[in-house]
Amino acid sequence: MSTVLIKGGRVITAADDYVADVFVENGRISLIGGSLDVDARVIDASGKYLLPGGIDPHTHLDMPFGGTVTVDDVESGQTAAAFGGTTCHVDFVIQPQGETFASALDQWKSKAEGKQVIDMGYHMAITDLHEGGTLEELASLPDQGVTSYKLFMAYKGALMVDDETLFRSMQVAAESGALVMVHAENGDAIDVLVKEALAAGHTEPHYHALTRPPETEGEATNRAIQLARVAGAPLYVVHVSCAEAVEPIAIAREKGWNVHGETCTQYFFVDYTFLERPNFEGAKYVYTPPPRDKANQDVLWNAVRTDVLSAISTDHCAFLWDGQKSLGKDDFSKIPNGGPGLENRLHMIHEFGVRAGRISLNRMVELLSTNPAKLFGLYPRKGTIAVGSDADIVVFDPERKHTISAATHHSKIDYNLYEGTEVTGSPEVVLLRGNVLVENDELVASPGVGQFVARAKFGQELRAKAAVA
To answer: By CB count within 10 A, which of 60, 201, 318, 462 is most buried?
Structure first.
């Protein structure tokens, strides 16, 4: 394995900000210091930031949904991630009805075989504790490095679980060292509203939002928090989109409860009016929870600044506008829910978070890398730049101009949520465990370099593997 010396970069972690050389050998950071003189390939990082590789804790690659499958498989999705400075992600295994968790995990691992460009772990999405998985099998997953369980409180008749399944899973998590994740919306109420809208002849994309009002997200968030409290389980609320869901999380955190939340890049930039765009273009913005009233964007910026919300993910779940989203041309409820975003998280949060003065550089690293690593059992092996950590490093040029466009991104998707946005600051070189992935705007590593990472249990640390010569 090659050795690399990154010279003169400005190292930014969640806590630190200093200029240094970083020496990488055997896939790990071996030495950090001034004016290092070692025999290695040199990368000149003068005037650049050295950021720990981004960790996206919420993605859906090669996932079946609504009669189709996301357009990005592991190779294309992870390639997009690499160009965006993300070097590790945690994807969702969706347990098929009637199948065991082991079978589901095997299916998802087989989808990744030989295709991995970056490192990855898995969450287990529980859909069936009656005919498929058992509580005993669920309890065994953390010992296999799958240390988070996801439950959908929405998508009635498909992915949604009842409160008994939710609560029993929380009890298992409390005993097994897993983190419970919830998609928090009141699926029963939404189902009624959807049926009423369709019966009244309302089929356009914006009814996706009108039938999923923010109160249904707030109610489910509070219900999940209270049930987790009774079960004694840590809770992580995914893709928080509105004030109604921020509020119960803020209250729980003020009380010192073990509750955490994330939002996603798109909720800072896309609002309800995007769904009203003519000629079915609104379908591009059909994801769940839906884009909210613009007033929620300031609420979310404040929540990530003050650590009410602790992470920013992408919920990358890409469906083609032409050919997949169009399944719902005459019925908004048939539009596959999901949007792209894996490549542009760092671009957008650096430009509109850091450069706009909403958050600091350190906080950006915390939200995009360190906190996801800590919450999901990857830290300190990942999520920071420190001796002994994996050499997942982004050489980021803070002055490099970049225009976000579907024409230049690396996902298979045919549109971009941030089309035409001009940003200053972009990854220049991206390394995964010392392997150069991206350089000179090209992918220079071959698929297969990425690995499955068995994660530590919630609250525990994950150390780097023994060095491989």
So the answer is: 318
The tally of domains found in the chain comes to 1
Q: How far apart are CA 314 and CA 268, in angstroms?
A: 11
User: How would you classify the pairing of strands 179-183 and 235-237?
Assistant: parallel
Residue with token string 């050389």: 21
Q: What is the pTM of this model?
A: 0.97
Distances from the Cα of 160 to the Cα of 190, 212, 465, angstroms: 12, 15, 38
What digits encode the pLDDT tens for the residues 220-257? 999 999 999 999 999 999 999 999 999 999 999 999 99
Q: Which residue type, as a one-letter code, is found at position 118?
A: I
- Name the H helices within 424-467: none
Helix (H) or strand (E) holding 94: strand 86-94
Give the model confidence (pLDDT) of 291-313 as tens digits.
Answer: 999 999 999 999 999 999 999 99
Say how far apart CA 56 and CA 342 lie, in whole Å.
8
Give the pLDDT confidence score for residue 211 in this predicted structure. 98
Residue linked to tokens 């993605």: 59
Q: Is 449 within a domain?
A: no
Among residues 142, 51, 38, the alpha carbon closest in space to that of 389 is found at: 51
Strands 435-439 and 442-443 turn out to be antiparallel
**Helical pair 187-199 and 214-231, crossing angle rounded to 10 deg:** 160
Q: Residue 337: which domain range?
A: 52-375
Q: Is 448 left (phi over 0), alpha (psi -120 to 50) or beta?
A: left
How far is 97 from 104, CA to CA, in rounded Å? 10
191 within domain boundaries: yes
Q: Take residue 40 and report the two structure tokens written for it.
A: 């290695």
Domain CATH number, residue 131 = 3.20.20.140
164, burial (CB in 10 Å: exposed 0-12, middle 13-18, buried 19+): exposed
| Complete DSSP assignment for 303-368 | HHHTTSS-EEE--B----TTTTGGGGTT-GGGSPP-B--TTTHHHHHIIIIITTTSS-HHHHHIII
Residue 11 in any domain: the answer is: no
